[in-house]
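Quick review question:
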């Protein structure tokens, strides 16, 4: 049995008028579980029109009433976490605890958005000149579109929508076609929370839907998370059409292991950070940079831990890791590992031919550990987005910093060390947006902002937190004078100078 996965436009689920559909798979079994309705141009236009109409009304709703909806949505999301996690696991493949974890991190952003009244406060300057005051405040941009990836079908939309909605915007979500059902579940929760129709919409589709949002004259801003080539395309296309854009791209995250690190701690965290969610995280550690004797000290521990990872259907309670998202992803991972082997790297743990009993048609790749990797190999250069950890050996912290800074990506990085000096030096000199000290996945909490540098971010604003507020609002400054009528004259053709008043 397959289910029809619809759009959510103006407060209602609809199959739309599009003639095209696309299958949705359970990656653990290879079975088709859903038939996704793809939007026509008319469907996309209907969603934008609904959002445009709703945005004008929602922007005038008081902050108190907006946050009341946010608080209710937060309660509903927390109460429905187990069911939503099941939906994520069934279409993405990640284990249930990981699915629940991404919902929990998304909840942090909802909670931040509940306090939007503090973030929207403006400034006031009294008597800047005689009888003249200046104040500033922030207003919503209008209609915001969020284009989100498959790897976090709940968390990434929650990085965007709650902040945008709390700030007074209407939101259109274009989720990944690979695991779209979570977006519809959240749309129902928004409606149950009391959000007016049209403020949150979901439209499914591929490149045509994306291009439609990037070029539509009634879409004011675009938030995107995905690969670097697409992030660059989104930024260039949308800005050329006069839109505000934040586009988060790919990553090649390095973790530096110093000889003075606790090797058991480093190996535990590297294993989890590399193989959790089958490596399908933009913050996954995919490169371990072993400094000096750290290479020999940590490698045996990594081998044993990689072999101990339990790869199963994500619904099984003792599973550590599930499948990758598609057969194409599996083939690509296998190809890159094969190229590394051909180029002279050492395959210490090989997960290419893993078969999970009872799930022979599933899209599984086992944990893979590759030593002696060189920077010119595809296993180093490419974002593999799979359960592959490569080890690059260097002689010093200086060389490690140079290696990381030479990489075109600048999303996240980490260092494992017991030296405060090494940690501080690394933190200050590394050209990466998010840094962990003995923390492998340095995803900032919701009241900070998430975002990388270099080819990992296109646009000026990071996502959620204070940067999210700034992105989804525009500042306005107002200069006010209320003179006595008898003193209202005295205008000058010269440019006004406050010093003279």
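Suggested answer, residue by residue:
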């Amino acid at each position: 049995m397959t289910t029809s996965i619809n759009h959510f436009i103006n407060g209602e689920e609809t199959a739309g008028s599009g003639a095209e559909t696309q299958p949705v798979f359970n990656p653990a079994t290879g079975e088709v579980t859903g038939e996704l309705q793809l939007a026509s141009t008319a469907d996309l236009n209907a969603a934008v029109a609904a959002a445009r109409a709703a945005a004008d009304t929602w922007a005038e709703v008081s902050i108190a009433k907006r946050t009341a909806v946010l608080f209710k949505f937060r309660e509903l999301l927390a109460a429905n976490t187990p069911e939503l996690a099941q939906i994520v696991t069934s279409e993405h493949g990640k284990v249930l605890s990981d699915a629940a974890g991404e919902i929990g991190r998304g909840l942090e952003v909802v909670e931040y958005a509940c306090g939007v009244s503090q973030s929207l406060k403006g400034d006031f300057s009294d008597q800047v000149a005689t009888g003249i005051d200046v104040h500033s405040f922030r207003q919503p941009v209008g209609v915001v579109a969020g284009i989100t990836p498959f790897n976090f079908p709940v968390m990434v939309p929650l990085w965007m929508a709650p902040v945008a909605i709390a700030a007074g915007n209407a939101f259109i979500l274009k989720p990944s076609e690979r695991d779209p059902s979570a977006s519809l579940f959240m749309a129902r929760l928004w409606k149950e929370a009391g959000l007016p129709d049209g403020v949150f919409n979901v439209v499914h589709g591929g490149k045509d839907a994306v291009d439609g949002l990037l070029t539509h004259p009634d879409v004011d801003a675009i938030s995107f998370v995905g690969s670097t080539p697409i992030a660059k395309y989104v930024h260039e296309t949308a800005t050329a059409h006069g839109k505000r854009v934040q586009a988060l791209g790919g990553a090649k995250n390095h973790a530096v292991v110093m000889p003075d690190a606790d090797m058991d701690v480093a190996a535990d965290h590297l294993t989890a950070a590399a193989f959790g969610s089958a490596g399908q995280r933009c913050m996954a550690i995919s490169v371990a940079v072993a400094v000096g004797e750290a290479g020999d000290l940590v490698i045996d521990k990594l081998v044993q831990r990689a072999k101990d990872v339990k790869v199963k259907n994500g619904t099984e309670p003792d599973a550590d890791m599930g499948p990758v998202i598609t057969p194409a992803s599996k083939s690509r991972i296998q190809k890159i590992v094969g190229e590394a082997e051909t180029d002279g790297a050492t395959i210490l743990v090989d997960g290419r031919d893993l078969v999970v009993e009872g799930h022979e048609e599933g899209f599984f790749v086992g944990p893979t550990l590759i030593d002696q990797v060189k920077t010119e190999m595809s296993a180093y250069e490419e974002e593999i987005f799979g359960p592959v950890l490569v080890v690059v050996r260097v002689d010093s912290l200086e060389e490690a910093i140079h290696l990381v800074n030479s990489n075109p990506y600048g999303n996240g990085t980490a260092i494992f060390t017991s030296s405060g000096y090494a940690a501080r030096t690394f933190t200050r000199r590394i050209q990466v947006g998010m840094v962990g000290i003995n923390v492998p996945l340095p995803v900032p909490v919701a009241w900070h902002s998430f975002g990388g540098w270099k080819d990992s971010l296109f646009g000026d604003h990071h996502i959620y937190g204070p940067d999210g507020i700034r992105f989804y609002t525009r500042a306005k400054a107002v200069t006010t004078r209320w003179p006595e009528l008898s003193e209202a004259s005295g205008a000058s053709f010269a440019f006004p100078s406050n010093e003279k008043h």
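Why it works: The radius of gyration is 25 Å. The first strand starts at residue 3 and ends at 5.
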